[in-house]
Amino acid sequence: MIHFSRNGDVMKVDRLARNTINALQIADTLSAKSAGLVFHDLGDVDINSDVSRVIYTTISAYAEMERKYILQRCNEGRERAKAKGRRFRIASLPYSVDRCT
């Protein structure tokens, strides 16, 4: 999918990749194609610059950690609800022949 990327596809670093290793692989792929990264919240990130790469790696690591914390809190909430006898289910939209999904 990286081959089809366009301007404005990803606004923030934490939405680019699920983990730090994947974020660095994406940066390497873009760098090999002489492309760069510009993030809405960070501005231009020159992935070939040592300082920018450290910043990019650090933000990617924090995003990975935050994602793990969110998953942990969601699982804890489900367990608490289960212990209280509440059922956890994902609401689904009713199927309709009039609606194209």
UniProtKB/TrEMBL annotation:
Entry-linked PROSITE patterns: RECOMBINASES_3
Entry-linked InterPro entries: Resolv_N, Resolvase-like_N_sf
GO molecular function, one term: DNA strand exchange activity
Pfam families: Resolvase
Limits of the Resolvase/invertase-type recombinase catalytic domain: 1-85
Protein name: Recombinase family protein
Annotated organism of origin: Aliivibrio finisterrensis
Phylogenetic lineage: Bacteria, Pseudomonadati, Pseudomonadota, Gammaproteobacteria, Vibrionales
